[in-house]
Amino acid sequence: MTATLPCFRMENVQRVFSDTFALRIKHLAVKTGETLTLLGPTGAGKSTLLQILAGLEHDFTGTTYYHNTSFSRELLPLGVRRNITLVFQHPQLLNTTVKKNVEFGLRLRGQQIDAEQVQTILNRLKLEHLQNQRVHSLSGGQVQLTALARALAVQPSVLLLDEPTSHLDPAHVSLVEEAIQYESTSRSMTVVWATHNLFQSQRVSDRVAFLLDGQLLEVASPESLFNTPQDPRTAAFVRGEMVY
Amino acid sequence: MTPSTSDVWSIAWLSVQVSTSAVLLAALAGIPLGTFLGLSQFRGKQLVVSLIYTGMALPPVVVGLLVYLGLSRSGPLAGLGWLFSARAMILAQFILAMPFVVGITMTAISAVPQSLRLQIRSLGASPWQLHSAILKEARAGVVLAVAIAFGRSISEVGAVLMVGGNIAGHTRVLTTAVVLETSQGHFETALALGGILLLIALVVNGLILSLKGQQQ
After folding, report:
1. What residues of chain B score a pLDDT lower than 50?
2. CATH architecture entry for B5-215
3. Which of A67, A109, B95, B118 sits a CA distance of 20 to 30 A from A50?
4. Looking at the partner chain, which of B115, B123, B137 has a beta carbon nearest the beta carbon of A105?
C-alpha cells in the first residue's frame, strides 16, 4: 500500500487567522499511495491543512509541493489540481439529483460519462436506489455518501477526506472505509484522511500524523503512535485524556 | 375614436416587443454584471450596491426625462435620432429594468454558500466552470430577477410616454393607450386594454417560470 516517492511535501508552512496560528508545520511528507490520517481534536488544524493540500487555501507562508510542483500562495495549475479532490466535513451538493452530482466532476473534465463506472460507485456506497432522487430530500449521512461518490467518480490520484464519516452510522462507516481502501489499493491512490476518531485512525492508516493547536507533534505508524507515542501530549490524547 | 381590433393587436404586439427587447438586453448585460458583483469583493463595492438598490427605486418619469434630454436635439445622443421611436422606449425600459436584474442576480449569487464554491473548485472546476455552476445554483433568483424586470417594464407608463410620445401606430403601447382612453372617458376600452396587459404579463411570467422548472 505504501510507496517511497513523496506525493506532498510541506516546508515551514504557517497559516494565521486573526493573529492566531491555525497551522504551523515545519515539515511533513506524504508518500505516494499511502493512507495518512491526520489525527487531532477539533480545532487542531486538520481542515486547514487539507485545504492547503487541495490548493484551495493560498493565504499561507512556506512552501508546499505536489510532486515537483510548488504552490506557495500561487494557484495550482488546473491540470494538477484535477488530480486532487477534497471531500469536505460539511459537504454541499448541487441542487439536482444524486446521480448528476456524482457525474459532476466528470462533466467538468469534459469526459464521456462512463455509466458503468458511475453505477459501480453508486452501488459500492449503496446509493443506487437514491440515484434519481433530488438532494434536498437526503439525510445528512446520504449527503456525505453522495459527496464521497462524487469525489471517487473522478478517480483522483489524491483523495483528501475531512471527517468523511461524521454523520454516518457504524454500518455505513464500515462501508466508506472499505470503499476508500478498495480505491486506494486498486489504483495506488494517496489518501489524506482527517479524523478525531482514534479507532478509525488505527483501522485505515499506513501512518498517522498527530496535530494539536496547529502543530504537527508526531508522525508514525499506527502501532508506534498508539503504543509508544513519543510526545506526552500525543500519549495523553491516545489515552483519551484532555490535552488542553 | 376607440381603437379597432387590428389597432389593439398592433399596440399589444409593440408592448411585447419593446418590453421583451428591453428585458433581454438588461438580462444580457445585467446577469453577468450581477454575477461578477455577487462573487467579487473590492473597495467601493458597498457604494456600487447602494447605487443599484437606489436604481430599483428610480422614478420612471425621471428616467423618461433623462432619456428625453439625452436624445433631444441638444442632447448628447441626438445623432441617433431615436426620440419618439420604439428604440427610445426600449432604452428607457432597459434603464429601469437593469437595477432589478443586477441587484437580484447579485443577491442570489451571494446566497450560494462559500463552502459550495470551494467544493466545486475542489472537484476540478476552472474559473469559468465555477461561475457557470454557481449561476446554475442561483437560477431561481436569476429567473425571479428577469420576471420582476419584465413586470417593471411592461407596466411602465411615464417614461415611455415621454420618450415615445404615444404616437398612434408608431409608439403607442398598452399602458399609454390606457392613459389616453381614460383621459377621453373611454373607460370600457381602457379596462379591456388593461386586461390584455395583465394577460400578457401572466403568459410571459408563466413562460419564465416554466423555464425555471425545466432547468431544475
Report:
1. none
2. Orthogonal Bundle (1.10)
3. A109
4. B123
pLDDT at A120: 94
Q: ipTM of the predicted structure? A: 0.89
Average pLDDT over residues A63-83: 85
Residues of A in contact with B125 (CB under 8 A): 108
Contact state of A92 with B123 under an 8 Å Cβ cutoff: no
- Where do we find the cell 454558500? B113
User: What pLDDT was estimated at residue A18?
Assistant: 81
Instruction: For residue A216, name the pLDDT band (cuts at 50, 70, 90).
Output: very high
Q: Is residue A1 part of a domain?
A: no
What is the overall mean pLDDT for chain A? Answer: 92
Residue tagged 413562460 (cell numbers): B207
Beta carbons within 8 Å of A150's beta carbon, 6+ residues apart: A93, A101, A102, A104, A105, B123
Nearest-CA neighbor of A39 among A175, A176, A180, A231?
A231
Find the CATH number of the domain harbouring A27: 3.40.50.300
A190 inside domain: yes
Q: pLDDT tens, A119-168? A: 999 999 999 999 999 999 999 999 999 999 999 999 999 999 999 998 89
Domain that holds residue A73: 6-238
Q: How far apart are CA A157 and CA A9, in angstroms?
A: 16
CB-CB under 8 Å, B113 with A151: no
